[in-house]
Amino acid sequence: QVDVAAMVQLFGYVDVTDTGFIVAVLSIAFNPLFWNVVARWEHKTRALSQVFGSPRAACYCLGAVILVLNCVRSHCFTEAMKSQPKLEGWDYHWTYYSGLAISAVGTLFVISSFLALGFTGTFLGDYFGILMEEKVTSFPFSVLDNPMYWGSTAIYLGWSLMHASPAGLLLTAVVAISYTIAVLYEGPFTEEIYRRKQKGVKSK
């Protein structure tokens, strides 16, 4: 069972009306919404591919924008943590090193995911018609689904623990929720793209 008293104590440290906290929440929620809307629009219209001259160039452009937005999100996340108090009793070496270890594991998942998928595979290339030959099943996909998302979440969790930040923990929960929603939308849509590919191959 959830310790309600502990939860109340934890979030008693967080001022959810703080401007920096609100900006961080909005930046976290905006990113997956942005790339899903833009990628689906591209899949439907091929407008970006026409503007940039090729699907690959358009995908690289969107990927660059996503990377910039992720940097902005991380900055907002960090500033929101700095502006709010640390949790009493957590500002110790064991918390710091635990957070460091979790962040390291998250970084491993993110980097290995990128290496396994490549740039276009990571940044929604299938929405641009740049399809992979087969589903990636090597590490880290052999360990868990959507390792890029959960690796990123682990990085934020570790970062929050390193700063003994209740605000960071709450924002990490927002990250996890936003990615969960993104997976619910992206998963079936991506599967449909590859289903159509297979159907087209069989019909030839």
TrEMBL record:
GO annotation, biological process: methylation; phosphatidylcholine biosynthetic process
Its annotated compartments are: Endoplasmic reticulum membrane
Q: How does it sit in the membrane?
A: Multi-pass membrane protein
Its EC top class is: transferase
| Keyword entries, A-Z | Endoplasmic reticulum, Lipid biosynthesis, Lipid metabolism, Membrane, Methyltransferase, Mitochondrion, Phospholipid biosynthesis, Phospholipid metabolism, S-adenosyl-L-methionine, Transferase, Transmembrane, Transmembrane helix
Q: Which reaction does it catalyse?
A: 1,2-di-(9Z,12Z,15Z-octadecatrienoyl)-sn-glycero-3-phospho-N-methylethanolamine + S-adenosyl-L-methionine = 1,2-di-(9Z,12Z,15Z-octadecatrienoyl)-sn-glycero-3-phospho-N,N-dimethylethanolamine + S-adenosyl-L-homocysteine + H(+); 1,2-di-(9Z-octadecenoyl)-sn-glycero-3-phosphoethanolamine + S-adenosyl-L-methionine = 1,2-di-(9Z-octadecenoyl)-sn-glycero-3-phospho-N-methylethanolamine + S-adenosyl-L-homocysteine + H(+); 1,2-di-(9Z,12Z-octadecadienoyl)-sn-glycero-3-phosphoethanolamine + S-adenosyl-L-methionine = 1,2-di-(9Z,12Z-octadecadienoyl)-sn-glycero-3-phospho-N-methylethanolamine + S-adenosyl-L-homocysteine + H(+); 1,2-di-(9Z,12Z-octadecadienoyl)-sn-glycero-3-phospho-N-methylethanolamine + S-adenosyl-L-methionine = 1,2-di-(9Z,12Z-octadecadienoyl)-sn-glycero-3-phospho-N,N-dimethylethanolamine + S-adenosyl-L-homocysteine + H(+)
Q: Which GO terms describe its cellular component?
A: endoplasmic reticulum membrane
Pathway given for this chain reads:
Lipid metabolism; Phospholipid metabolism; phosphatidylcholine biosynthesis
Keyword hit for Mitochondrion = yes
Q: Name one Pfam family in it.
A: PEMT
Report the PROSITE patterns cross-referenced here. SAM_PEMT_PEM2 (PS51599)
Recorded E.C. number(s)?
2.1.1.17, 2.1.1.71
* Molecular function terms from GO: phosphatidyl-N-methylethanolamine N-methyltransferase activity; phosphatidylethanolamine N-methyltransferase activity
Q: Which residues cross the membrane?
A: 20-37, 95-124, 165-185
Highest taxon of the lineage: Eukaryota
Output the HAMAP family linked to this UniProt entry: PLMT
Name of the featured protein: Phosphatidylethanolamine N-methyltransferase
UniProt organism field: Pomatostomus ruficeps (Chestnut-crowned babbler)
